[in-house]
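Aim 2 progress update. The chain analyzed this quarter is reproduced below.
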Amino acid sequence: MRVRTNADRLVTQILTGEVWPPLANRNGYHVDADGHPFLLPGMGGVTLGVHCGDPATGYAADHLEPGLSIRHREAGANMALQFLACVGNTVRTASGAEGFVIGQHAYVLADFPEETLAEVTVGDPVTVVARGQGLRLADHPDLVVKNCDPGLIERMPGGTRADGRLEVHVAATAPAEAVGAGVGMASEFANTDLMGAYAGQSPDLSLGLEGLRIGDFVALEDTDHRFGRGHRAGYVTIGVISTGHCMLYGHGPGPSSLISGPADAFHIVHDSDANLGGIR
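Predicted structure tokens:
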């Protein structure tokens, strides 16, 4: 992205965590939007076979987390991992294999090549090279950047236009009514779930998001994620899809927040190739 930033003033910190196991309780089952019980894999552990560019939905899963689900066992250190890890940051396993952060959920999520994931197990330590919180766009004072490695900003298509707006390429635009779970949370924590994104839904439920992929950049209409997450008419938030299929009502594939501000400060370009996997 052709844009001036304060990247040379950012601090890099080395954070640690471990691959966290999937968790359950003795009741096991949850209930979907139509009252049907289900018991499916999704959050935690090592998830094989789902990477940036793959479909976000259509799996027998609930709150699907691609790749590695990472957290720290000490509560304060875990919140620092959540708040400071940024999309695009390098993640290293103990063997030296490298992947990258794709977003936050209950865990920090990292994509790796399939052959690397096959060699990782629950409890393995990982290192995150955290850099990006505090990033600013010098020529766009009304826009707030969250959770974004400065190197990712440099590789994203678009940039500052002659008319002063920020050009951003997205694979999809989500209307405000698609926004579900995640409203009211800090925009550096977890992500926002999108409803109406599943193939085969009745026309009154479809919101045109059935083609979402893991890693897609999306524009969330009438949402303000500058200092939290909420509805604000005339604002836009750019996010990246970091989680997949959900069964609970009000949940769905979730974008982590990247850039937020007034809609008229953006020039949105719809681009089917706008995916994290293609530029990281």
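The longest helix spans residues 75-84. Residues 7-130 form a domain with the Thrombin, subunit H fold (CATH 2.40.10.170). These observations will guide the mutagenesis experiments scheduled for the next reporting period.
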